[in-house]
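tmp note - O-antigen ligase domain-containing protein
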Amino acid sequence: MTIVGLILFPLCLLLWMRPQLMLHILLLAGMLPAAAALVLGGLGVQPAMVPAMAFMSFVMLQWVLGVHYPGERTVMTLCFPFMLVVAWTLLASLIMPRLFMNQVMVWPQKSDSVGGRVLLAPNFGNISQDMYLLINAVFLVLAARFLTRSDVRLDRLYRTFLISGWCVVGICMWQFAHRVGGVPFPDTFFYSNPGWAVLNTQTAGPVPRINGSFSEPAACAAFLSEILFSTVWIVLQGYSVARARWLIPASALALACTTSTTGFITVAVEICLLPVAAIATGAMQLLGNITRMIVVGIALLACGVLVVVTVAPQVVPAAQFVFQSTAEKKDSQSYQDRSQVDRDSMSLVAETYGLGVGWGSNRASSLLPGLLSTIGVVGAVGLLVFDTKLLRRAMAARRRVPPGPERMVIEGVVPALVARLIAASLSSPTVGFLDFYLLIAMLIAAIARIDLICAGRARAQVAQRALAPVYATAAQCHARVETDTPQIHA
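out:
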């Protein structure tokens, strides 16, 4: 058991009866993917797995005892396409490696041991990846159902997500001080997972590349871009979240310290998506705010560059080298190798007639080739249907209610998920972290809660309209009695 495990296991045991706190702990533990809570041989249990299993055990026990949640029907309706994809994935991981055995060449999960492609055959990667996927899917459904409870504060859970962003920024600055000034940095705490290849000594010329608590700079940049895009959007929408405005420059600075091409491209795509999002949501007044934010950001960046050049002129050659290496990324050997892996993975789609080689049989370099080569066209189309349906329901839900906790969660979570998917499309074969699935669960729960709110209002209006004729009839009878009384006396 590692130091992280010595903290998480007792904490989750003490707070087991408070499942909502388990989700907060999961978001904070999700920023330590390169650490391990428990080491089993050459495998490490991710820290986020500990609060997730504690949460799932409590909620499943409640389900066995007959506890139900108010938004279960909406949650299951939204999750149904994803559940079909998971069922197809688990079934295909058993069939496809045997159906196309020794017929195609694949990149294994642990390519370091073989150094190249191997013939397709059933392996332990199918079992291990199926287990991870099953845990993620069950956690997604259980968390979404649980979060529809009226006593759960979704906005507080989103604020914890932003706090995790502040923690990653602090860790990045700490590591930068360690790489530049020799400040002590606990490598054994952040990189205790033996199943991860940690790249924490990379440099871009004279500039150290920062990976924070993640296994590589690209993974750290992907998380920071997620925080950055989410924070920018909620600030533009006018939500008052503590220290959210300051998180924008802080996360941007930490992302720049990673010198990750993935992070830079993701941010560039996010900037291009901001006007599109403003038009799509009908918030045309945000276009002016977006323009002002970009202008202010460029002005602050220019001032910062002038100050740095004046105080430390030796930074200029280093910045030029980083810019040149980023611009010439396509000519690097690592880019060529990753592109070749993606091309090999895409060729598997045609070789398997669009069915894929099975989940866990092939490891690509980016998201789309990784999905198409493993779960095939059927699984990829299913995920597209799920994403499209979820996005449409989210946009419809935010239009039905005024600004509030549920709407703020939708406004903040959707940009975060989009940013993570953009980064994964550039440099990650899958998106399998539990904090990512918790964000999806928060989005589904927010939609279900808005449906419950609107349904309650509709029932109240129907009741009022039903009572109106009753009171009108009583008033008419009273009026007839009053008019008949004088005639009787006469």
